[in-house]
Specification:
Length: 265
């Protein structure tokens, strides 16, 4: 019987391959009908597709070489098994993911609101880097709280467009609302409390200079499942469900008509 970490890692690698294949299928499917869309909608869908590629690649990398940033743990010893590399990949992928949200919000009429979400998540990424460099999990709690608020804000905007949409647009709003509700509930019930508990438990923090030196060095190979399971519980849906959501965004029906009916805010 395989060790828990080995079974989990194998599943992550399989998911990464599946996600890459799903992106290729998504690209082919979009290519078949993108020319039938209005020029501006087609351009947005192409951008959404390539932004999803960054997210798929980033999550694929982190699936093959999973790391836990603050304790500097990883599963495999390679030349790129460094927290700095993993965190950098995550930063690019997550900014690409939220850029997808911004594009769709702008298309739906929320020009100003769409401009806000990327800077807000950029701030969340700064908080994440502070947490990683100083080993202070309070900043991870703040980072994930920011993601939670931004997700709730984005879906609240979509919900406000309900009366302007037809049956298709309302299905999009229901799907987005359901996904956002599940995400917010998970973050509030599990992820943010997890980091707050770690912060309350206490951990010796380090200076930025010390932290930078640590994250540039190879991380410590650690395969004790007791040290991984808490993070595996959120990394698993992150590398699967969130990736599938990102892939789906290139195929979301346009809400532009509803935006025109409502007037662009």
């Amino acid at each position: 019987m395989p060790d828990p970490w080995s079974a989990w890692w194998t599943a992550l690698c399989a998911a990464a391959l599946l996600n890459a294949a799903a992106w290729a299928y998504s690209a082919v499917r979009l290519g078949r009908h993108v020319d039938s869309l209005p020029a501006d909608v087609a351009l947005t869908r192409r951008r959404l597709l390539w932004l999803s590629a960054l997210y798929v690649l980033g999550c694929g990398f982190r699936s093959v070489l999973p790391m836990i940033d603050v304790p500097r743990f990883c599963l495999h010893e390679t030349g790129i098994s460094r927290i700095f590399v993993g965190r950098s990949v995550a930063t690019v992928a997550e900014l690409a993911f939220v850029a997808q949200w911004a594009l769709l919000m702008r298309e739906a009429g929320a020009v100003r609101a769409g401009r806000m979400v990327v800077p807000l998540i950029a701030c969340a990424e700064v908080l994440s880097w502070i947490a990683v460099l100083t080993r202070d999990d309070l900043f991870h709690a703040l980072e994930n709280s920011t993601w939670t608020v931004v997700a709730a804000f984005a879906v609240a905007f979509l919900a406000s467009r309900w009366r302007y949409e037809g049956p298709t647009g309302r299905k999009v709003i229901i799907a987005a609302g359901g996904a956002a509700a599940a995400y917010v509930a998970f973050m509030v019930a599990y992820v943010v409390p997890m980091y707050l508990m770690r912060w309350h438990a206490g951990h010796e923090t380090v200076t930025f200079a010390q932290g930078l030196a640590e994250v540039l060095h190879p991380c410590t190979v650690q395969r004790d499942w007791a040290l991984w399971w808490q993070d595996a519980a959120w990394l698993t849906p992150y590398f699967t469900l969130c990736v599938w959501f990102s892939l789906s965004l290139a195929h979301v029906p346009s809400l532009k008509a509803g935006a025109a009916a409502a007037g662009r805010p």
